[in-house]
């Protein structure tokens, strides 16, 4: 894989504002947008949804991620968007899909705030890696 200094990974958390009753449609609409925009701009990553909260990880070129972040900040379907990771990465760790969706059940024990602790662990121990980060989150919430 070619090293690219412009590659970054961003992880943010946010809160749903649109009607929870239509969450399936909302997620479907998001994925439809992502399939088009992310594919075109070579942005790859994962979206977790749980109890009206989102956690999204995106990897791509710095300029392309900025375009997407502008859209995300302007999107009224969610609010309180807080970036928890914004770091350069040497190589892409996601190549195969545009946005991998994890719609987690209400009963799943998960605390997105804990992600900030996971991020701190990363800072202390190793270089940020999108794929490993998502694996760590999946491990934490017992997803295979
Ligand atoms: C939690 C969340 C995650 C989203 N993720 C993406 C994404 O990865 N890619 C994308 O193109 N749009 C994503 N969207 C939708 C964008 O905010 C925006 O609505 C969409 O890109 C259409 O933009 P446009 O109206 O400027 O064409 C997301 C929206 C939400 C609420």
TrEMBL record:
InterPro entries per UniProt: Acylphosphatase-like_dom_sf (IPR036046), BLUF_domain (IPR007024)
SUPFAM superfamilies, per the entry: Acylphosphatase/BLUF domain-like
One Pfam family this sequence matches: BLUF
Domain BLUF: 7-100
TM ranges: none
Protein's UniProt name: BLUF domain-containing protein
Annotated source species: Psychrosphaera algicola
């Amino acid at each position: 894989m070619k090293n690219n200094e412009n590659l970054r990974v961003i992880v943010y958390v946010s809160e749903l504002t649109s009607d929870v009753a239509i969450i399936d449609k909302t997620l479907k609409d998001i994925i439809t947008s992502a399939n088009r925009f992310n594919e075109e701009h070579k942005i790859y990553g994962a979206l977790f949804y749980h109890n009206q909260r989102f956690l999204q990880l995106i990897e791509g070129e710095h300029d392309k991620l900025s375009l997407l972040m502008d859209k995300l900040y302007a999107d009224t379907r969610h609010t309180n968007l807080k970036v928890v990771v914004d770091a350069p990465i040497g190589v892409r760790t996601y190549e195969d899909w545009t946005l991998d969706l994890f719609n987690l059940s209400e009963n799943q024990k998960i605390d997105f705030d804990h992600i900030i602790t996971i991020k701190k662990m990363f800072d202390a121990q190793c270089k940020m890696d999108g794929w490993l980060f998502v694996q760590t989150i999946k491990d934490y919430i017992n997803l295979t």
